[in-house]
Design goal:
The chain has helices at residues 15-25, 64-72, 86-95, and strands at 2-11, 32-36, 41-48, 51-58, 75-83, 106-107, 113-117, 126-131. By secondary structure, the protein is an alpha+beta fold. The chain is globular and about 45 Å long. It contains 3 helices and 8 strands; from the N terminus they run E-H-E-E-E-H-E-H-E-E-E. It has a single domain, classed as 2,3-Dihydroxybiphenyl 1,2-Dioxygenase, domain 1. The structure holds zinc ion (ZN).
Length: 132
């Protein structure tokens, strides 16, 4: 079951210059900044009520985030939907022929389990399923 939008992730080339908008102009607070090894990125978490904006800065040239940035520039990267049972959801989606990027969960930001659905199956949007 989908519980809510957990976060929206935005790829940026430079955290400090992006924070001049998201933190300084909009007034959002940076809750914490964390290196997420599985995504080869540094992520700043800015809570927006019950959800978060995540600013993602790639730390390698080879990660998916870095390739996205090189190809398209800064911009929205993915929407994360919080689910109550990730394993069950992945089995169900696979049975429905949905194209999964991660057929088994990875460890995402915050140490939680997550899996990505290919944009080809999701109206052109990269969707992350995320379980707390
Ligand atoms: Zn995410």
């Amino acid at each position: 079951m989908i519980k809510k939008i957990n976060h929206v992730a935005i790829i940026v080339p430079d955290l400090d210059s992006s924070l001049t908008f998201w933190r300084d102009a909009l007034g959002l607070k940076v809750e914490h900044v964390e290196e997420v090894k599985s995504q080869e990125s540094i992520v700043a978490f800015l809570p927006t009520g019950d959800s978060e904006i995540e600013l993602v800065k790639p730390t390698s040239e080879t990660s998916g985030a870095a390739k996205f940035l090189a190809k398209r520039g800064a911009g929205m990267h993915h929407i994360a939907l919080e689910v109550d049972n990730l394993d069950e959801m992945l089995v169900d989606l696979k049975a429905k022929g949905i194209r999964l990027i991660n057929e088994t969960p990875i460890i995402a930001a915050g140490g939680y389990r997550a899996a990505f659905i290919h944009p080809e199956s999701a109206s052109g949007v990269l969707v992350e399923l995320y379980q707390k």
